[in-house]
Amino acid sequence: MVKKWKGTFTTFPLRRGNHLNEKGFVLPFTLLLLMIVLLLAFASKDLFISKYQYLLNMKSIHERNVSVSYAILFEMENGFPPLDQVKTNFGEVMTTNRVLTQQEAQLEMTFKRNEKVFLPATVVYNRETKQIIRWE
């Protein structure tokens, strides 16, 4: 047979400072602080990766623009055969030339790099003054 407990519950008076027990405060505070630090670390990692990807894309665009500009200058200075291919450090530029009028000529450049072909750029320039009229 099991005896029932007939005692009464007593409440202990809170002593001053007893409710500031560190066992219940330090662990949650530390976990919260750790979560904030980890969140900031992951956010800054993603920001760094996105900025790095942006810089890589901008580098590729700049290299393409330099190659196309080099091909335009080369074609304008040396005259132009009907079809030419200029190799640069960053890729190949295929050019197609047309005479529009006696003074104006049109160059159409297609940039190729790592087996990727980019959209063509078209330049109309004055053959006598070697100044670009339109760049599309």
Strand content: 25-35%
Assembly status: single chain
**Number of distinct beta strands:** 6
As residue ranges, the low-confidence spans are none
Which structural category do the helix and sheet elements fall into?
alpha+beta
Distance between the termini: 100 Å
Element pattern in H and E: HEEEEEE
| Overall pLDDT metric | 78
Report the total helices: 1
Question: Biggest β-sheet: count, sense, barrel?
Answer: 6 strands, antiparallel
Q: What coarse outline follows from CA principal-axis ratios? A: rod-shaped
Radius of gyration: 37 Å
The helicity comes to 25-40%
Question: Can you walk through the features of this model?
Answer:
The protein is an alpha+beta fold. The protein has a domain at 53-135. The protein has one helix at residues 26-78, and strands at residues 83-87, 92-99, 104-113, 116-117, 121-126, 132-135. Strands 1, 2, 3, 4, 5 and 6 form a 6-stranded antiparallel beta sheet that branches.
Name its key features:
136 residues, six-stranded antiparallel β-sheet, alpha+beta, single chain, 26% strand, 1 helix
What does the secondary structure layout of this molecule look like, with pairings?
Blueprint: H1 26-78, E1 83-87, E2 92-99, E3 104-113, E4 116-117, E5 121-126, E6 132-135
Antiparallel strand pairs: 1-2, 2-3, 3-4, 3-5, 5-6
